[in-house]
Inverse folding.
């Protein structure tokens, strides 16, 4: 590049607004159809385990502690998720959604990718290694 052209570029750039975005300080809204993290609606979940059964990567596990009382632990391993939305389509109750506004999923260690949803009592029981007496026929998230 000739010196004259280079100086011209430098001067033009110095007075132009930057093209780059100041992420993460400035964020644009995510596209509506972006598939971010899974969201589970515990109120409508029946614990059927279909989502886990159909998940191609074993990212979901549904543990049923008490079906009548709707005591479930829903384990979701974000690092295994392909964001394919198969679970969303498989769930007949419409409990699952891949939300567009939760997509910044980087974590410093893989432990941060394991999500356990449900009553605190049952999540704690699961974390302590206490499993339901009759586990749901479901997938096998770790
Ligand atoms: S989006 Fe796909 S990979 Fe992720 S949990 Fe659902 S079925 Fe599994
Ligand atoms: S398919 Fe739907 S209702 Fe069945 S366990 Fe999964 S989230 Fe719950």
């Amino acid at each position: 590049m000739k010196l004259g052209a280079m100086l011209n570029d430098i001067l033009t750039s110095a007075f132009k607004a930057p093209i780059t975005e100041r992420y993460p300080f400035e964020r644009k809204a995510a596209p509506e159809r972006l598939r971010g993290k899974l969201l589970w609606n515990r109120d409508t979940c029946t614990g059927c385990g279909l989502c886990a059964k159909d998940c191609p990567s074993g990212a979901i596990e549904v543990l049923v502690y008490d079906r009548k009382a709707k005591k479930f632990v829903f384990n979701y391993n974000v690092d295994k998720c392909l964001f394919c939305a198969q679970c969303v389509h498989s769930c007949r109750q419409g409990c699952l959604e891949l939300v567009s506004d939760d997509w910044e999923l980087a974590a410093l260690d893989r432990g941060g990718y394991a999500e356990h949803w449900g009553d605190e009592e049952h999540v704690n029981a699961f974390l302590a290694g206490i499993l339901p007496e009759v586990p749901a026929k479901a997938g096998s998230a770790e």
User: Anything to note?
Assistant: Residues 135-142 have pLDDT under 50 and may be disordered. The longest helix spans residues 3-14. The chain has four helices and five strands. The first strand starts at residue 38 and ends at 40.
